[in-house]
Amino acid sequence: MERGKMAEAESLETAAEHERILREIESTDTACIGPTLRSVYDGEEHGRFMEKLETRIRNHDREIEKMCNFHYQGFVDSITELLKVRGEAQKLKLVIAMEELKQCRLQQRNISATVDKLMLCLPVLEMYSKLRDQMKTKRHYPALKTLEHLEHTYLPQVSHYRFCKVMVDNIPKLREEIKDVSMSDLKDFLESIRKHSDKIGETAMKQAQQQRNLDNIVLQQPRIGSKRKSKKDAYIIFDTEIESTSPKSEQDSGILDVEDEEDDEEGARETFENYYRKQRRKQARLVLQPPSNMHETLDGYRKYFNQIVGFFVVEDHILHTTQGLVNRAYIDELWEMALSKTIAALRTHSSYCSDPNLVLDLKNLIVLFADTLQVYGFPVNQLFDMLLEIRDQYSETLLKKWAGIFRNILDSDNYSPIPVTSEEMYKKVVGQFPFQDIELEKQPFPKKFPFSEFVPKVYNQIKEFIYACLKFSEDLHLSSTEIDDMIRKSTNLLLTRTLSNSLQNVIKRKNIGLTELVQIIINTTHLEKSCKYLEEFITNITNVLPETVHTTKLYGTTTFKDARHAAEEEIYTNLNQKIDQFLQLADYDWMTGDLGNKASDYLVDLIAFLRSTFAVFTHLPGKVAQTACMSACKHLATSLMQLLLEAEVRQLTLGALQQFNLDVRECEQFARSGPVPGFQEDTLQLAFIDLRQLLDLFIQWDWSTYLADYGQPNCKYLRVNPVTALTLLEKISRE
Question: Chain centroid to CA 104: how far?
Answer without folding.
Answer: 81
